[in-house]
Amino acid sequence: MAGTEFEKMLAGELYSAADPEIQACSAAAAQWMARYNGALGAPQAMRDALLAQRLGAVGDGSVIRPPFHCDYGFNIRLGAGVFLNFNCVILDVVEVRIGDGTQIGPGVQILTADHPRDPRERAAGLEFGRPVTIGRNVWIGAGAIILPGVTIADDALIGAGAVVTKDVPKGAKALGNPARVV
User: Fold this and answer.
1) Which SMART domains match (predicted)?
2) What are the extents of the domains in the chain?
């Protein structure tokens, strides 16, 4: 088991988001998002530099169109040539990996944050995270929601508005709510 609440968060264990270290990380991310989202009309090179300041990894040629929202940023790893359109949200309490050449439509939500099923643990303010992995050359349509713990394999297609609750195999198309492979 991890020691501090921050270490517990990164390890995917139950943690308290009210912890001062976690709150400081959240505040730093909020300040960064204000700068990044305010740079919508700035040259791409400036936005690239801002992404490199906060995200865990940013592959060559990756683009995130502001506005963009995340919990922390440092748990997000983008491969080369990744594209996120306007208004995407990534709740990155644990790692989010997005493979080379993946394209993500506007308004997509990628969520690693989860909450205990036990009502007493929820009432105590505890939460945990489950990582999300998105492979190479994936297309995720506008407004899709990717839930905690999901893996989407290479070359998959996720339909607009889909709610992805389970892993999606390589090359598959997943559509609907809940998303089903077709």
Assistant:
1) Mac (SM01266)
2) 5-181
DSSP summary character for residue 163 = E
Q: Which helix (H) or strand (E) holds 180?
A: strand 180-181
- d(CA 102, CA 30) in angstroms, rounded, equals 25
What pLDDT shows up at residue 72?
Answer: 98
Would you give the DSSP letter of residue 168?
Answer: B
- Which residues belong to the active site? 115
Q: Which residue has the tokens 């592959």?
A: 59
Over range 89-118, report the average pLDDT: 98
- Is the Cβ–Cβ distance between 91 and 113 less than 8 Å? yes
3-state percent breakdown (helix, strand, coil) of the chain, nearest 5? 25, 30, 50
- Is the CATH code 3.90.220.20 the one for domain 5-181? no
| 110: Cα within 13 Å, side-chain hemisphere | 32
The answer, yes or no, to whether residue 1 has pLDDT greater than 80, is no
Query: Tens digit of pLDDT for each residue in 6-30?
Result: 999 999 999 999 999 999 999 999 9
What CA–CA distance (Å, rounded) separates 8 from 131? 14
77 vs 81: CA distance, rounded Å = 12
Q: What's the predicted TM-score (pTM) here?
A: 0.96
